[in-house]
Design brief:
The protein has 378 residues and is of the alpha+beta class. The chain is 27% helix and 27% strand. The strands form three sheets. Strands 5, 6, 7, 13, 14, 15, 16, 17 and 18 form a nine-stranded mixed sheet that branches. Strands 1, 2, 9, 10, 11, 12, 19 and 20 form an eight-stranded mixed sheet that branches. Strand 1, helix 1 and strand 2 form a beta-alpha-beta unit. The longest helix is centred in the first third of the chain and has 15 residues. The chain starts with a strand and ends with a helix.
Length: 378
């Protein structure tokens, strides 16, 4: 039976980033139930690195990850991981005060963020109708497009170069704790052993936890739909920012000569291979056509993914308080790629017993805010 220090369950962004940071210090295997890595949510991301998106802790971890993505170590990737995009969160006239307040709050962590008046908003994103931007917009000039494949691939290559193993088609059927080790049974009948199981299984994190005898943290997978459509001829797509409405009921962004759009839906779902619903696409089309001058005549591609949240929409990172050797790395929601590097790094540091990395703690992130104990104690 093969023996490891850490068996990481899930080869999405969370799992491979944790493996990247753990492998130089320990024997690591990554177990992925699908036939390829990043099959589910990681491979279906809208791919925007936004330091204004999410809770205070999410935003801080995103800022930390951005430092890595903007200057990765030599050999991590052969081209930039982030490219300039910019993002506008636009609102109606009655939302102006709330937009200004949110912009000021975001600027405390990201000083380049500012509120734009309606005229500036329409100059930057002329596709918006005046009424959709009558309250102005929060402008995040440093929001960037992410090369998700390059980011994920860089972590996976780095982990394997440091000695980590990747096992595909490795669905776990049994977890048994004995004498300080997990015996892990796989669907194909093989078994392996590990001192620690890292639960980075995305929408299946509560399912895996229960298999290990732990209490769930209340993870709710939620379907998010996306699709692409043709951009009108003559637009300067490389310089158009992403547009999001303040209520977060739609967004669209340039994407390789076309537009990527979504109704920003969050429909609860069981863990599954999520598929898009035609009604969700129709809703997005209606909302975007109401708020902009765009006319969406043909849907080119469509897909859906599951974004998994706990109640406070923060990450869940840390050892389970009741089950020895079970480490949580879950609850990434819609922030998995943008937080990926630093979430993996802080997970590795906590899993190795080294505490929260100083630079991340310096941004206001505490172990308690991310600990699974906030849901499972009592």
């Amino acid at each position: 039976m093969q023996d490891f220090d850490f068996a990481i369950v899930g080869a999405g962004i969370a799992g491979v980033s944790a493996a990247y940071h753990l492998a130089p210090h320990a024997r690591v295997i990554v177990l992925e139930r699908e036939h390829v890595a990043a099959y589910h949510t990681t491979g279906r991301s809208a791919a925007l690195h936004s330091e204004t998106y999410g809770s205070a802790e999410i935003r801080a971890i995103t800022v930390s990850s951005g430092r890595f993505y903007r200057k990765p170590p030599p050999g991590f990737a052969d081209h930039p991981l982030l490219t300039p995009r910019g993002a506008l969160i636009a609102g109606r006239a009655d939302q102006q005060a709330a937009l200004q307040k949110a912009a000021a709050d975001y600027a405390r962590l990201v000083p380049s963020v500012r509120w734009l008046d309606p005229g500036e908003t329409l100059r930057l994103q002329p596709l918006l109708k005046p009424e959709a931007a009558a309250g102005g917009a929060i402008f995040e000039p440093e929001a960037d497009d992410m090369d998700v494949a390059a980011i994920h691939g860089g972590f996976l290559r780095g982990a394997r170069a440091a000695g980590a193993m990747l096992r595909l088609d490795a669905e776990i059927t049994t977890l048994e704790r004995k004498d300080g080790q997990w015996k892990i049974g796989l669907r194909d009948g093989e078994s392996l052993a590990a001192k620690t199981v890292v639960n980075a299984s995305g929408a299946w994190a509560d399912v895996l936890a229960q298999l290990a005898g732990a209490r769930p943290v209340g993870l709710v997978p939620k379907r998010r739909t996306a699709f692409t459509f043709d951009a009108p001829v003559g637009l300067d797509l490389p310089h158009l920012p992403m547009a999001i409405d303040f209520d977060e009921t739609w967004y669209f962004k340039p994407e390789v000569g076309q537009f990527l759009a979504s109704p920003a839906d969050e429909t609860p779902s069981p863990p599954c291979d999520a598929q898009p619903e035609e009604m969700d696409i129709a809703i997005a089309v209606e909302r975007i056509e109401t708020a902009t001058t765009l006319q969406i005549r043909r849907i080119k591609n469509k897909w859906a993914g599951l974004r998994s949240f706990v109640a406070d929409k923060n990450l869940v990172v840390g050892y389970d308080h009741a089950v020895e050797g079970l480490f949580w790395l879950a609850g990434q929601g819609g922030y998995g790629i943008q937080t990926g590097e630093s979430a993996g790094r802080l997970a590795a540091s906590l899993a190795l017993g080294r505490g929260m990395p100083g630079d991340i703690a310096g941004l206001g992130v505490s172990e308690a805010a991310l600990s699974p104990a906030r849901f499972t104690q009592g």
